[in-house]
Structure formats: structure tokens, C-alpha cells
Amino acid sequence: MLMPFDFLRGDSENDDSSDNSIGDDFVELDAEVENRDEKVVIRAETLQELDDIEEVQEHLRNDHIVWVNIGPLKNRDMADLKRAIKRLKKTIRAIDGDMAGVDESYILTCPEYAEIARSTKEQ
Q1: Is there a domain that residue 96 lies in?
Q2: What is the Cα–Cα distance from 107 to 66, expressed in whole angstroms?
């Protein structure tokens, strides 16, 4: 009768080896963790005008997470804000990133290595 965890040692009646080695049924996995030498950069940018979106796009292309204050542009020119958001969405799609509105004045954007966790509760 096998005792608990005896499956790790093998069945001694059918095992040709005399030691308690694991055997050929197991594959050794490379558990080496990738060390990231560089830190994650989180930028805070404010959209005062439509052209400010270019700097946000450049930060995203450089793998930075960007916290964008859209309040000043929203209060000044809603048409320019819509154009800025459209350009930002195209960049997010191109880099396979993620974007979410935090409230009426802020947007969080990130490159492909990060994901924005969204709340599941309804407000």
C-alpha cells in the first residue's frame, strides 16, 4: 500500500533504480525570474491645448505610464479635447496599451506591459 506522497518517489515494486530519485516523468523548469534593471516611469501631464497630446503620445511610445489631466483643455475647447482623445486612442491601439477615464478630469494611460484594473462594482 502506498503512503501519501509516495507517488513522488515512485512505486518501489516497479522501479528499477535502487535510489529514491524522481525519475524521467518530471521535467525541470527554468524558474529564473527576469530581472528588470530599469524602473517603471509614471508621468503626470496636463493638456492645456491640443498639441500637448504629442508629448503624452511620446511618453507612451517610450513605455511610460501617463496620468493625464484633461480638465484645462475640457474647460477651454471641447472639440480639441475630442480630437486629442481620438489621437490618444489611436496611439493606445498601436502600442497595444490600455486607457481609462478616472473621473471627469483625468485619464490613465499605459503601454502594453501594464493593464488597468477596472472596478467591477456599479456606482
Answers
A1: yes
A2: 8
104 to 29, 71, 100, 119: CA distances (angstroms): 47, 7, 11, 16
Residue 78 domain flag = yes
Q: Which domain holds residue 48?
A: 42-110
Percent of the chain whose pLDDT exceeds 90: 63
Please determine, for residue 8, whether its predicted confidence score (pLDDT) is greater than 80. no
Torsional sign, CA 17, 22, 27, 29: negative
Q: Write the CATH number for 84.
A: 3.30.110.150
Residue 39: pLDDT band with limits 50, 70, 90:
confident
Q: Give domain status of residue 18, yes or no.
A: no
Whether this model's pTM surpasses 0.85:
no
- The residue among 43, 117, 106 whose CA lies nearest residue 69 is 106
